[in-house]
User: Fold these one by one.
Assistant:
Number 1:
Amino acid sequence: MAVLILAIFCVGTAELAPSGMLGDLSRDLSVSIPTAGLLVTVYALTVVVGGPLVTAATTRVRRKYLLVGLLLVSVAGNVVSSLAPTFALLVVGRMLTAVIHGTFLAVCVVIAGSMADKGKEGSAIAGTQLGINLATVLGVPLGTLVAQQLNWRATFGSVAVLALLATVLILLVIPDNGGTSGSSAAHELRVFRKWQVMGTVLATVLCSGGMFTLITYMVPLLTDVGDFPSAWVPAVLVAYGLGSIAGNAIGGRCADRSVDAAVLGLSSALAVVCLLYWVAAPSPVGGAAFLILFSTATFALIPGLQAKVLSAAADAPTLSLTANMSAFGLGAALGSWAGGQIIDQGLGIRAVTVGAAAFTALGALLIAQTVHSGRRRQRAVDHQDHDGTKERQPADSGSTAAPAS
């Protein structure tokens, strides 16, 4: 498990690293900060499109060798990013790195969920997120520090070396049990007929949009709005990462108790935190505190969203989870783009907190609808089963029994 966490750490760091060094990227490549922020958008859009395609193409590949192949593609992408002389080539490197993201994480989640005891799926899924948490706690701040002390190219190069090490360790340590990444793609596609799956995926897009509207611009929000000292930004990002670990643990336990209650309550809480962040942002202390609170609320919500999809699509998990990863990516693209638009329209960096709150509130409303729809359908099934035990009638031949009075 430690090897998988290391590999997920590399994937997560590659995804999030640009958020901590937008200023360095914009200066070195002569682009604006919103344009540099498009590196997050491009990564996210590649996850959206590439994830399902890669998953569909690799359903019969044995898991061990699938993970090795995906990580080697990630290594190549980070090498290209490190050496890119222009912004356009950096975008190409980001796309190479991103194309493996959804499939890799989905396979990890499926494995964790299948190994979990009944009622502990939320905690198991949260466990797979530890690599992402560590990327936030260690990867992003260390990447920011490397960029400040050396340059941003060294950050991408370091991730490439670490991912190559993880690839070698997977070859040496992970047993080849012959298992593949899932059933046929045609079989797994049928699961998207279920509204509980599709509604949750759409809610993931909105909630992720809210997350990344703020995440993409969290460093300028600290330094430009809150006048927070740049030298202390890596320390705040470490605290942000610690908040993500705490939130991940909280979210896993909440999902163990009730997935529906967890996603509904935590999405609503995240919307409130984003809105209150607008009030706190001009204060250095208040802005830093709310960034950590935002991190806790964000990572508490993620395990519940994944667990809800997994429970609704238990017979076809791999592609549905990859689609939900793509939903996170689509939301990230939408959010990072929306944040840039908010800034470009003259509303200021501070206003991205309000945009984040709006996205997340819409996600919470959609989650409420799916929860209500699911409960209503379950009541109808229970009522039908109850009536069926009272009288067995022509209903079996297609006629409809009169409702009980």
Number 2:
Amino acid sequence: MNVRRSAAVLAAVAVIGAATPAAADPSPSPSRALPSALYGDKDPKYDGVWRQSLALLAQDTVGVRPAAKPVQWLLRQQCADGAFAAYRADPAAACDGTTMRDTNATSAAVQALAALGGHDEVTGKAVRWLKSVQNEDGGWGYAPGGASDTNSTSVVIGALAAAGEQPGRVEKGGKSPYDALLKLALPCGGDEDGAFAFQPDKKGKLFANADATAAGVLGALGKGIVTKAGVKESGTGCAKPRTPEQAAANGAGYLTAALAADDGHLMSALPGAEPQPDFGNTADAVVALAAHGDTGQAEKSVRWLEKNSAAWARQNGPAAYAQLIFAAHATGTDPRDFGGTDLVKQLNGTGPAPQAAGAKAAGQDGRDEKKDSDSVFGVWWYVGVCLVAGIGIGFLFSSGRRKKQQP
């Protein structure tokens, strides 16, 4: 699930193969303090809305009412056309043609604000914008106008469902988001049985990607970032993915085998680096398997996370704590005693103290954006995002059963 902002963008970078511009610098400016309402202490340039949304959604999931200030900060990040950018340092300035609108950030914000309640006008505008940038194949890319990918299409499906829409009826050119996902599902036969690809490569070939598969399973099931354990339907083995349900079952089978091959967790390998455990994508896989009803492997993998993820979460902050909370929630694990760590306390400590029980929900005052125009992301922005660090999403390239994944 999800959930998957940085992995999606990094995969887009790998697909287009562009060079990194020297001007792209993810380090925070020493002269500019981070917003006091923001969760986390790392530069929010590429993930501010994403990690804020995950933090708020995770707090709501465990019954914690966020402080009003961080909710207001998220509300004010929205452009007048309904879209959210990754981060706007000055939300009082109207979005314009240079504002880099972001389908993943928009979808995460919708899911968080829908869960908190009382923000129908904001989520409605965001959903209308998402519909306006849907591709002809029924899916979405990370940026408006970009080729559809599994991660972006799936997180948008989650947003549509959270907002009360029926994703299968949201069509463009006669195609729904599920049609787009089915085109990105690998066939049965071989080591990559049933996986999802992020996108086709330049020759149109699909390569299995564990992160995309976790996203694709949730998307094909019509689920969002937060889900509880589902009921697995009868039938075993990989079959031709003629329906979203079969594609989800195939993907769940692939994830189960990939997790079992490495003692319950996924592995990642970036070019030039040694493979290492991938905590973020393992958490996403747990959520996807639980949603499909594959609770046996999901519970084994969440136990592995309980034993091994504490240092990773401390380093990566609010989005990482949120991912672990989602994995705990999906498997019925106590997030307040997650391998001896209170994930809720740790998450709360990355931002403003939450409201006391019974406090009024945050309102929508203070939003003063003016009407603006749409824009298409430039390639340079995709590349710049590949420099992002510390947002807790895991590595892009996750190993499968026998073979290192391709972007």
